[in-house]
Amino acid sequence: MRYIKNSYGVRLIGLVLGLILNALGNGLCISSNMGSGIWTASAVNMHQWLGIDTGVLLIIIGVINALTNQILIHKIDIKRFVGQIIFVLFYGYFIDIFTWIFDQLGMPHYNIVARGFFAILGIVFFCIAISLYQRANIIMHPNDDTTNILRFHYLKGNATLSQVIDFIPPIIVVLISFIYTHQIYSINIATLFSIIFNGILIATADKYIWPGLKHNFTVKFQNRS
Description:
The chain is mainly α. Helices cover about 75% and strands about 0% of the residues. The chain has helices spanning about 10-30, 40-50, 55-70, 80-105, 110-135, 140-155, 160-180, 190-210. The longest helix is centred in the middle third of the chain and has 27 residues, at about 80-105.
């Protein structure tokens, strides 16, 4: 059963705003070079270990996430799967635009305090973005859909716990990569901030950032025993 609480037009605005904020936030993290989200960090560490291009690894991770989501919802949903793959393929393009803008503004050369501030601000922005397009629930990054499914199908709406569970696979990947490379890459203050506060920030954004945008989400399996 699906409870639609907003019109499609309102949900579409939520999606577009979420995409822009997510790209902006990731652009801040990348340009400031003070850490990134843990999934991105896992791809960077795999790149150092296996030599595969980071962008290709992010696409592979996205496809694996999308397939995992099909298992978690207990059915094959082709429309959902295709939408998430399209999101993954175009997602990096918008991040590149914002990263280029911030690079042109000289952010990589700011002092460490300023870069740390902007990296943390980037985490805040993409957590707000996740909140917006998860609530809109038209299309989203498959990893964000994973946390949405965990939150409402399995964890009784607990955003923080769903994020914690979602962080386990990339942390394992980073640790395995470390065994082979003896180095940890792309882990810095913003990454630690993300690990600790992602769920809290998303739940807070749900409550205070555009509260009129509701969770337009399927809850069919929420009360399954």
